[in-house]
Write a structure and sequence with these properties.
- This protein is of the alpha+beta class.
- It has two domains: 2-75, Glutaredoxin (3-Layer(aba) Sandwich), CATH 3.40.30; 88-202, Glutathione S-transferase Yfyf (Class Pi), Chain A, domain 2 (Up-down Bundle), CATH 1.20.1050.
- The protein is 51% helix and 7% strand.
- It contains nine helices and four strands.
- The protein has helices spanning 11-22, 41-44, 65-75, 88-114, 124-146, 160-175, 181-184, 186-195, 199-202, and strands at 2-6, 27-31, 52-54, 61-63.
- The chain has a four-stranded mixed beta sheet with strand order 2-1-3-4, covered by helices on one side.
- The protein is globular, with a radius of gyration of 17 Å.
- The protein starts with a strand and ends in a 14-residue tail after the last helix.
- Bound molecules: glutathione sulfonic acid (GTS).
- Residues 7, 9-10, 12-13, 34-35, 48-51, 64-66, 102, 109 line the site of glutathione sulfonic acid.
- Residues 7, 9-10, 12-13, 34-35, 48-51, 64-66, 102, 109 line the site of glutathione sulfonic acid (GTS).
- Residues 86-216 form the GST C-terminal domain.
- Residues 1-80 form the GST N-terminal domain.
- This is Glutathione S-transferase domain-containing protein.
Length: 216
């Protein structure tokens, strides 16, 4: 059986957890804090990041959330999370949405750690730059949510784009509760609320983690 190295607040890991659940692929969840010295992540990922999907042999591993999802889609095409190969533009649009989601998450993580530095070492221009990326990405996602034709962002069933967007919104709700995205983008908030009702979302709700070791 696969093992997924995850972290309780991780939006990247939540994408994979939801995809595994939607594809009915059983796995063991191994929850870690990747910044703590106890993490096993570096054994499997030279980039020392989770999520990491450890395969049945307990040694081979797939890492980088967007690649793990591509790997799962290729290896387990039943219950597809992307439109059919004959719908190239729709597939590419779903991946474009994931690119924006991951980029917003990356910027949030960078801003989070910059704010963790002692005040005299903190760079406000750097934080401002990251938050500009967050706002720009959320604006794009908000527009796509507004333009949604049916219940889902791409196609007529739950897919990669919804899983990515839902994971980001859940991360903001968990780690950035004072952010005003839900008021600014009501269609995005409504879509997220619908997604959170799904069992695979209910079973993967994020929660904060405590870091024991100094990170920055
Ligand atoms: N691009 C990566 C980003 C993953 C990532 O940043 N993971 C964090 C944990 S979390 O932010 O998702 O909770 C991590 O392992 N960070 C450890 C490190 O950067 O050394 C992906 O999509 O998998």
């Amino acid at each position: 059986m696969f093992t997924l190295i995850s972290a309780t607040p991780s939006p990247y890991a939540r994408k994979v957890r939801i995809a595994l659940a939607e594809k009915h692929i059983p796995f063991t969840l191994q929850t870690e804090v990747p910044w703590d010295g106890t993490t096993k992540t570096p054994r499997y990922n030279p980039l020392e990041k989770l999520p990491v999907l450890i395969l049945d042999d307990g040694k081979s591993a797939v890492y980088e959330s967007s690649y793990i999802l591509e790997w799962l889609e290729a290896k387990y095409p039943e219950t597809p999370l992307l439109p059919g190969i004959d719908q190239v533009d729709a597939r590419l649009f779903a991946k474009r949405i994931e690119v924006v989601v991951d980029g917003v998450c990356d910027a949030l993580v960078l801003a989070f750690f910059e704010k963790m530095r002692e005040p005299e070492k903190r760079s406000q221009p750097w934080i401002d730059r990251q938050m500009r990326k967050v706002e720009g990405g959320l604006k794009a996602l908000g527009e796509w949510a507004d333009q949604k034709q049916g219940d889902y962002l791409v196609g007529d069933k739950l897919g990669l784009a919804d899983i990515a967007v839902g994971s980001l919104c859940g991360y903001l709700d968990c780690r950035w509760p004072s952010h005003t995205w839900a008021d600014t983008y009501p269609a995005l908030k409504k879509h997220w609320q619908m997604l959170e009702e799904l069992p695979s979302f209910q079973d993967t709700r994020p929660s904060p983690q405590t870091m024991k070791d100094k990170v920055v």
